[in-house]
Amino acid sequence: MKIGVVDLDTSHPQNWIPIERELGHEVVGLWDGGSVHPAGYVKKFAQDYEIPTVYPSLEAMVPEVDCAIIHGCDWDTHIAKARPFVEAGKAVLLDKPVAGNIADIVQIENWVNSGARISGGSSLRFCYETRDWLAIPEDERGAPHTVICGCGVDEYNYGIHAYALLSGILGPGNASVRHLSQGVQRRIEVTWENGAVGILVIGKMDGWIPFHAEIITNKGVTQYVVDSANLYRALLERVLPYLAGDVAEPPVPIEALVEPELCALAAKLSWTNGNKAVPMHHLAKANVSYDGAAFALEYQQMRYPK
Could you tell me if 289 and 207 lie in one domain? Predict the structure, then answer.
């Protein structure tokens, strides 16, 4: 399919484009909103990666692509940027986090339930290590009852990877979320409808910490550190066939795909309300969000310090 890349904010576009091509797709053009990079960056990027067109607007891109991949690190702009593609019947891949508030998540769900092809999120949802573990028959590996996942850097833009890793292991069905404590990192408890419990360890710390998981079942314990070198391929090879229409069903239904973002919102609601448990069905009326514009500004200042 013909892919249009929207926003070049992070390192993802240059790392994804070679994989997209290897998987048989054509990257036909770019558009960048300028949230992070200076004027001229997008044209040089197009030259460096041999992409034929830099579009003057999203509207100019829409008729010439089959799918838009939206990489903007201001997740609060994802809905506005996806809308012209969705309304034109084009597929959309939303990079992580897919959204930062309840209303935007509901809009994505409504679009998909009305027939739009939308997927994406964190690549940790699809990592090979989890796939390999799930491929072992349950009567051999056991049913997981407690899972610990974690990573570093920040609570949402990067922390969403840990939420997604946890969801990939335990599947859909979040019941409640409770913030436990904040020491070196935050500790968060996620309870599933079937009684399984996930513990997340996320947030900034002095040193680097990789994506990691410990799965405890009725038959044993499995631990792994995720190989970051293979993460992008793991996502794209699962998501792009669905977005291209080559397979009918998404790799993860939309209600399950957005559960990591909803869990993160519930966690924030918990730690701002005295660490009270937050039932997932209470989120619909909750006033809680992560500020995408503030993160984009912080990210821009980190990339181009004055």
Answer: yes
Q: Is residue 93 part of a domain?
A: yes
Same domain, 276 and 136: yes
CA 175 remoteness from chain centre: 20
Reported as a pLDDT band with limits 50, 70 and 90, residue 23 is very high
Is the Cβ–Cβ distance between 196 and 140 less than 8 Å? no
- 91 and 24 belong to one structural domain: yes
Helix H or strand E encompassing 177: strand 174-182
Residues 6+ apart with CB under 8 A from 53: 28, 29, 30, 46, 64
Strand 197-202 to strand 144-150: parallel, antiparallel, or no bridges (unpaired)? parallel
Q: What percent of the chain has pLDDT over 70?
A: 100
Average pLDDT value over all residues in the chain: 97
| pLDDT score for 158 | 96
End-to-end CA separation in angstroms for the chain: 40
State the total domains in the chain. Answer: 2
Average pLDDT over residues 272-282: 97
Closest CA to 68 of 122, 5, 24, 8: 5
CATH number for the domain spanning 222: value is 3.30.360.10
Contact 45, 29 (CB under 8 A): no
Q: 38 is in which domain, residue-wise?
A: 2-122+231-251
Average pLDDT score over residue span 249-255: 97
Q: CA–CA distance from 120 to each of 195, 222, 291 (Å)?
A: 27, 27, 20
Task: Give the pairing type, strands 186-192 and 197-202.
Answer: antiparallel
Helix (H) or strand (E) holding 162: helix 160-170
d(CA 204, CA 207): 9
